[in-house]
Amino acid sequence: MKNLEITYNKGKENEFKATKGVNIEIYPEEYIAFFGPSGCGKSTLFYCILGILAPSAGEILVKGKNPYKFSAEEMVNFQTSVIGIIYQAFFLINSISVIDNVALPQIFQGIPPHKRNQRAMELLKRFEIDSKAQFYPDNLSGGQSQRVSVARSMVNNPDILLADEPTGNLDSISTKQVMDALEEINQRDRKTVIMITHNAAQLKYCHRVFYMKDGVVARVVPNPEKKQIAKVDKTQMLVTEMEQLSRMYPYDPPDVLKVKSLVNFLTQDLNFDQLARLEGAIKVMVDRKTTPDKLIEYLTASYDAGGVGLSKPRARKITDKIVKILDQSKDIQRYRRRLLRADLFTNQDELVANITNYLIVDYHGNFTPEQKSNLKNAIFDRLVGNFRKEGFEARIATPVKDGGAGFNRKTAHNLTLHLEKILIQGMETGGE
After folding, report:
1. Is the Cα dihedral 138, 139, 142, 146 positive or negative?
2. 306 phi and psi, to 5 degrees?
3. Each residue of 316-352: pLDDT tens digit?
4. Buried-state track 16-36, b at ≥16 Cβ within 10 A, e below 16
5. Separation between Cα atoms, residue 315 and residue 310, nearest integer Å
6. Cα–Cα distance for residue pair 284/279, rounded to 1 Å
7. DSSP string spanning 52-110?
8. How much is the pTM?
9. Which class is 2-232 in CATH?
10. Residues of the chain with CATH 3.40.50.300
11. Tell me, what DSSP letter sits at residue 303?
């Protein structure tokens, strides 16, 4: 999509611009989601990709061609062979059997009855709905109906699968079945899957998520748990907690998520109102708009006086941890800048050594040079994205003789948590 704009009722009093200069590129075999609240423009883009809602300005290319320049015959072929569709409302035809619903798109391809029925039955078996082949759709559950819809979308072996809120009408069990089916289609059949959703729990299936707001793509977030197909900024993939928080708070900007990360780290026992005040205080500190002494003063002020109501020792402990993590995160910022400049190996050892020392300063057991060396190697691998948070924790818990740092589970967990906090605070949000 290049500077894509779609305007409804153009030139009329009720003119409404649904999308505003959208520029995105989706790669073959990607699984992506358009995510956002109702009215943000995600369904508008869906129908534009499908070929039934022409751009008011800009251009859309699918497989290098503009579908809105197709002849009528070419458009039919595009919408039946290149694109497969799964709707939230299923749109099955109740007057014909399940197998005939699945086979129906092949009629328009001129496929003989025995071949199209064979293809339909193969897909029904694959999605474990073949026992209902001779049933009529009004005798199916919602989950069964959607699996029939998935089979129908695949019957012509399309290159791209569009899924519009595919689980919006389903229970949790049926939702998982449908989402697993879409993931299998993406991974096994190597189909491009484009999903429209407002369910943050489903974003984990995707390679990338296009967060939409008010007709624009507000941000594009790669999933660090997926091997990327598109070329993405590696610095966005170092921190998995940011992704976890963005799923929990999908409309919060990165700087707000950074504050939530610190709050989660520092306290588990405060009530909701105290947490809200603590978040506000920590944000001021993260933004470097107050001093440690002022923060302690606010944290220890009584709740009735507008403070958080913490004891002085606890307030000082929290403040000391924040100051330490913010100071340590500066090395992460330096590291990321060099990564962006392709200058990663300038003073690389010094930066990694600094981060290693931050993690072990509170470690009170015996610490051998080999342990430190292996920990340093593990930190480097985490920074460049060779493995995720869980991989780092497992690595440093591995015996020294096997290349790990030989920490017990509790120590490995605590060091991993510390590193993740440094990483997330080292992200430069640029005010976005």
Report:
1. negative
2. 95, 0
3. 988 988 888 888 888 777 766 665 555 544 456 777 8
4. ebbbbebebebeeebbbbbbb
5. 6
6. 9
7. SS--SEEE--BTTB-GGGS-HHHHHHIIIIIEEEE-TT----TTS-HHHHHHHHHHTTT
8. 0.58
9. alpha beta
10. 2-232
11. T
